[in-house]
Amino acid sequence: MNSVAGINIVRFILLLLVQVLICNHIDFLGYINPYIYIIFIFLFPIREERLALLLFSFMLGMLIDLFSDSGGVHAAAAVSLAYIRPILLKSSFGMLYEHQSIKFSTTDIGSLITYISLGTVIHHSILFSLEIFNISSILLVLEKTLFSSIFTIILSVLIIILFSRNRK
Where are the transmembrane segments (predicted)? Predict the structure, then answer.
């Protein structure tokens, strides 16, 4: 097993445990609940097979659903995020993605925040739309998406910066 696979396995397990044991128990004001497990999807290596990302995202989402008793909404949102990830990478990093030379530890912080923000808002809007699944509760979906996205973006950027090796 190479070091990239080992790092991804450890990241998968750690993010799953932190999400299930800590973050699922945070429910501030009924709207703010961080979902940091999506960091795994954001940081998955670009040169790896896209099908592997979709399968790992599905497994991660299903495990979160099993522990949260949420009926598949996390799996659907995680797979959706993994599916649109190339579009997010191209819109956030441009030519770096075209040449597949993105290293998240050395990229511009603005591009990283744009990438994480776009992905988080898309993930959360899918997640809460499927969770509530009622058009008359669209304001509740938007409130939960906004507040949880802000908290998740802040935590995700902090975690990525703190645990990246070569950050200046």
Answer: 5-22, 28-44, 51-68, 74-97, 109-133, 145-163
